[in-house]
Amino acid sequence: MIEQLVVVGGGVMGRGIAYTGAVSGFHVKLVDKYEQVLQSARQEIEELFAGAVQRNKLTLEEAASAKERLSYHSDLEGSVQAADLVIEAVTEKLDLKKQIFEMLDRHAPAHGLLVSNTSTLSPTEIGSFTRRPDKVMAMHFFNPAYKMKLIELVRGLETSDETVRLIQLVAGRMNKETVTINEFPGFVTSRMSALVGNEAFYMLMEGVGTPEEIDKAIKLGLNYPMGPLELADLVGLDARLNNLRYLHQTLGEKYRPCPLLVKYVQAGRLGRKTGRGVYEYGKKE
Fold this sequence. Notes:
Elements: E1 4-8, H1 12-23, E2 27-31, H2 35-54, H3 60-68, E3 70-73, H4 76-79, E4 85-88, H5 94-107, E5 113-116, H6 123-127, E6 136-140, E7 150-155, H7 161-173, E8 177-182, H8 189-205, H9 211-222, H10 228-235, H11 237-251, H12 259-266
Parallel strand pairs: 1-2, 1-4, 2-3, 4-5, 5-6, 7-8
Antiparallel strand pairs: 6-7
């Protein structure tokens, strides 16, 4: 039975997952080594609780109970010692994930499941950083994690059926739908999203249309809830570029990053988190 959940990484995805877990009845520890990130996460999560109460999604009592189940920590080693499930939600850099999963393997209890919120990287390779690859897989949430209904579950080569079953139960308790797939670079959703988003940057570079026109065409013509350039700004242009570079390396030429995307990242235009990406957002969020 999974009750104690630890989320590693207090960024946009980590704080959304932590909030979702607490609302769903899990005892959640949100861990980040930077105190300012934890403060920002706490403030945003408090706003999410307030908004949920205002919209009658939660009662005052439910919100108060969920808040009591959620705590904030900077000590990773100590935080995972009683964890039933650890969800890693840090930047898509394999070296960083390697460091984290090696540490998780040393300090999490033997029964603890270790999953990554990666959207492209190999859960098989991530599992190889541990002595428990049968208890490792990808649990790919979508942004914002508390709203999006899907979690893409990705088995590594050695992921056990029992691990998949338990993670499916966790997702169900979070009121999410799941697809469970076998590992291949980019999984299902990231391969498609990366192609569409990269092509949108090529169209922007070629002068096919303004960002607003391209996004409007995709939203209204193809029934997407958000335009691909808006989405890139939301997830971060640096994250999108990292994903494309990995997919280009593993799947070939059709994923070569658009030069305009590379230029934006080099200029520090990373999207909403820096206040400027394809669009302008005023001061840094």
